[in-house]
Amino acid sequence: MALKTYHIPIGKGSQAVDLPEEKVIYDIHGNKAAIKPDLKAETLRAIRNPIGTKPLKELVKKGDTVAITASDLTRPVRSKDFLPVILDELNAAGVPDSDICLVVATGTHRGHTPAEDLEVYGEEVVKRIKIYQHDCKSPDLVYKGETSRGTPIWQDARVSHADKIIITGGVSLHPFAGFGGGRKGVMPGVSGLKTINHNHLLALTDEVGGGCNPETICGRLDGNRVSEDMEEVCRALNPAFLVNVVFTPDGDVHEVVAGDWFKAHRQGCADLFTMSKVPIDHKADVVIASAGGAPKDTNLYQGTKAHMNADFAVKDGGILIVALDCPDIKEPPIFSKWISMPGTLLEMEKAVRADFSIPAFVAFKTRCICNRCRKTYLVTRPENFDFVKATGEIPVATVAEAWELAQKELAAEGKTNYDIIVMSHAAATFPVVLSKQL
Questions:
Q1: For 202, which DSSP code?
Q2: Beta strands 314-323; 241-247: pairing state
Q3: Is 105 within 8 Å of 69 (Cβ atoms)?
Q4: In which region does residue 192 sit, left (phi positive, over 0), alpha (psi from -120 to 50) or beta (all else)?
Q5: Alpha carbons 428 and 296: distance in angstroms, whole number
């Protein structure tokens, strides 16, 4: 049996593992995509050649107040590079910096410190315009009705009262909203806690015990009730313009989409999916996955994006090996509390329904994925082992060791005709079984 060496990213390096080459049915790296080296030039191109609407300069006028929603520090979308381009274009249309504000789209996250504003948005932006931190629990939220699914629409007052709203961010794969970016700059970005929680509960089935809603999945927009509800919330604010960056699986800029908040975002999602989607004939008995190394595996919370996408490649009862360095494995604490929660999946589901948060849901979905597998091995630092055991995963120090344990499991089953899928950039690549393309 011929062996081939595969290098699996972990942290700032990689680990080698020798696998039987004829058993590896897919070595997934994502699809080749064009790269735009100059984000500022690409942003200017996009806002002057928008999708589905007039150029930005024709949508605003002197006397307008403009609110820009921008991703917080948990979403590294290079805001400091493209925001000055937007500001300059608004100035050219007659809107001075004094009539523009930026609202940090924190959702349920904490607000930035002044130093973090400087880090994320850059010195130029911080000096030019007012920056406010959205507070989802603020008593000053504005009520704008409810969606067809009964979600109460509470919005940040500074955004709601602006004459024109511009939403910014990045298009990404999302475990239950289908894709990030677009309407997420409003919901959850600048929405109230009641709005966010009611919307996100749609990621679970209506019936207790049903677990995760099978229609609210990565890569799906139409028929995904979480995303459709987000779009209704966003429509209540009616943003004038959108600017979103689309990154390649390796983190380079592929393009900027700009224009109509719905149409431009949909275009960005389609383009991202073209890059990320990898057709496969069938799922595998063993999947070896990495989030893609640092910084995508800084903590387990971010690293579970590898679990989420590997879930589409591993068979029921299969073996999942995930390589995550996790130097800050317990960050954020709320996720750590949920992922290490004792008890059954049903007990965990009931607890998530009673106190919903995104970290709680991500922890629950990760546990569901691991529960679907025969074994889940987490390759990480030895100092993380005790915590990993509390999550129900099996900690190991190397990918090679995990593969040795997997082989013993396969032998115990008497399984010799197994197959393997390798996903070196699982957080940014999306396997799709040909008969079930989205």
A1: G
A2: unpaired
A3: yes
A4: beta
A5: 10
